[in-house]
Amino acid sequence: MDWNVITLNGSSIIMTFLFDWISLLFMGFVLIISSLVILYSDDYMSGDLNIVRFIMLVLMFVVSMMFLIISPNVISILLGWDGLGLVSYLLVIYYQNVKSYGAGMLTVLSNRIGDVALLMVIAWMINFGSWSFIYYLDFLSGSLEMELISFLVVLAAMTKSAQIPFSSWLPAAMAAPTPVSALVHSSTLVTAGVYLLIRFSPSFGYSLNMFLLLISGLTMFMAGLGANFEYDLKSIIALSTLSQLGLMIMTISVGLSGLAFFHLLTHALFKALLFMCAGGVIHSMGDSQDIRFMGGMSIYMPFTSSCLMVSNFALCGMPFLAGFYSKDFILEMFSMSYVNGFGFVLLFLSTGLTVCYSFRLFYFAMCGDFNFSPSYSMPETNYNMMFGMVGLLVMSVFGGGVLMWLICPTPSMICLPYYLKFLTLFVLFVGGWVGYGMAGFSFSDNLFSMNLYGATSFSGSMWFMPFFSTYGVSYTPLMVGYKATKVFDSGWMEYFGGQGMYWALFNLGSVNQWFQYNSLKVFLGFFVMWVVILLFILIY
């Protein structure tokens, strides 16, 4: 749809909106989820004095996402893209403390790299005479300019969707309020990069797809491994988002962008519910996020626990929940595709790790005794929070089947041998068994743990990526600045410059002063010296 914004002296500024099945479906999901999240926020943020400001920020966030979804033009995409970046920064620093400020800076600076890449895409698209990429994406694929533009789009999507090496900002952004996390991790900020890749996917060449396959596969594996060593409830769910983003981008890289979009939608449903349940649990536990303090939640909070487990099992890909329809489809289509062995192993291993950390969470939260203060009462969540969760609970159960009917009206023929057909179920059950078994095993109780310490700290810290993103980036320039200050401003420049000249003149002045204070003694001394020299000359 073309909208003529203004016509001046024969020149028209026309804004184009794209309403195809992808954008309309995605917009519908974003609006449904955001409306339920805002309803949930009404109770969750009830004690906050600035709740109106919070709701306005969330609405700005949703409007930016709408702009990005319906734009076939790179300029208007940049408006939505930058809007998401700015509002996400404001929401991450919403609770004003040092940790939030640090997380906000990490978030916004990581995303600036992608913004610059998108600006360079705009600059390179001047060669084509139009910024509406949707019209000539297939036509120009394979040209040098399009390859460069595709690479820059991939770079932008990697920063926004937090792929390696830009992953560390996603768990850091957990400093934002929980309703924001539910929105960010389900359908807005992190999915913007995946959505852009889906739009640009026809122009990707073989080498770029292989690069994407490797990066997204490693991200998926790293996030799945890290979540198994994490004890913070929100961080576990954040790392699971990272893992699912890796799965979506991996699916795009093998040419299955429609399936990636399908998983994007189903993932949005159960991930928003998962964050809402986590928010309810944290709220009821006096703002404690450590899963080791939980236990026996199903007795104290039956409704929230039920929602948490439904969304958790949907994330695993348990049969006939929302995640199963897209995830199982992706794994089977992947098994049919021409993919290298490394990508295949990474995908199935990461799927197993997803089930592993989900069952570990199930063990800590639902099994055993309540580990918090013995006299602490656990109230169930409020009416509005429960209403928001019920809406998403129904969609997490039935959404996958309904979307399957909508997106794939004609059934796909998947022909696989028995061992590949049952591999998905096998990985699922083994992952669950290992996760549940490992949760009860404590590394700190035995001597074996000393050998495992290095491996666990490496795996549990996202392969040291947060250190590289913060300490690694800031240490070198700060040290160079310190050395420069020490050598130049406080060193040689100061020695030969103002301070050195001052001390030289000061010392000369003190010598002159000494001469003036002792003038009689100096004159007599000089007189004796001259007499001695004259006698010496006369004698010899």
TrEMBL record:
It is an enzyme of class 7 (translocase). One of its GO terms (biological process) is electron transport coupled proton transport. It is a multi-pass membrane protein. Residues 6-54 form the NADH-Ubiquinone oxidoreductase (complex I) chain 5 N-terminal domain. One of its GO terms (molecular function) is NADH dehydrogenase (ubiquinone) activity. It is found in: Mitochondrion inner membrane. Residues 357-537 form the NADH dehydrogenase subunit 5 C-terminal domain. InterPro entries: NADH_DH_su5_C, ND/Mrp_TM, NU5C-like, Proton_antipo_N. Keywords: Electron transport, Membrane, Mitochondrion, Mitochondrion inner membrane, NAD, Respiratory chain, Translocase, Transmembrane, Transmembrane helix, Transport, Ubiquinone. One of its GO terms (cellular component) is mitochondrial inner membrane. Its main location: mitochondrion. Its EC number is 7.1.1.2. It catalyses: a ubiquinone + NADH + 5 H(+)(in) = a ubiquinol + NAD(+) + 4 H(+)(out). The chain crosses the membrane at residues 12-39, 51-70, 77-96, 116-136, 148-166, 178-198, 210-229, 235-261, 268-286, 298-325, 337-365, 385-407, 419-443, 463-480, 492-510, 522-539. Residues 71-351 form the NADH:quinone oxidoreductase/Mrp antiporter transmembrane domain. Core subunit of the mitochondrial membrane respiratory chain NADH dehydrogenase (Complex I) that is believed to belong to the minimal assembly required for catalysis. Complex I functions in the transfer of electrons from NADH to the respiratory chain. The immediate electron acceptor for the enzyme is believed to be ubiquinone. Belongs to the complex I subunit 5 family. This is NADH-ubiquinone oxidoreductase chain 5. It comes from Alyscotermes kilimandjaricus. The lineage of its organism: Eukaryota, Metazoa, Ecdysozoa, Arthropoda, Hexapoda. The gene is nad5.
